[in-house]
Amino acid sequence: QVQLVESGGGLVQPGESLRLSCVASGLYLDFHLYGASWYRQAPGKERDLVASISSYSGDANYAEFVKGRFTISRDIVKNTVYLQMNRLKPEDTAVYYCHISGNWGQGTRVTVSS
After folding, report:
1. How many CA atoms within 13 Å lie on the side-chain side of 9?
2. pLDDT of 54-81, one tens digit each?
3. What distance in Å separates the CA atoms of residue 76 and residue 68, rounded to the nearest whole number?
4. From the centroid of its chain, how far is CA 63?
5. CB atoms within 10 A of CB 19
């Protein structure tokens, strides 16, 4: 059974940084053979794709609203995908979810407020 566990969320002020982690377990194949994505869902809004990293090459893609501020990466030894979030804005406030191979984590809450 695949399990994704996110962590790293919290309350920060505008302009600060956070790094989210998503640890995967129970995957059938080696971790680098899976693509992974981070999504976010703000209160009352739909879940939006934030960033993704491809299988094999690890190429990254970003939503326009986070380009230049967020970085997705992975550690294939630790079966972990990260989301480094810099220069956070109040509009980044949301629950952030990891998604791998049709599976979702429980989410980690990020609140950006002064």
Report:
1. 20
2. 998 989 999 999 999 999 999 999 999 9
3. 24
4. 12
5. 13
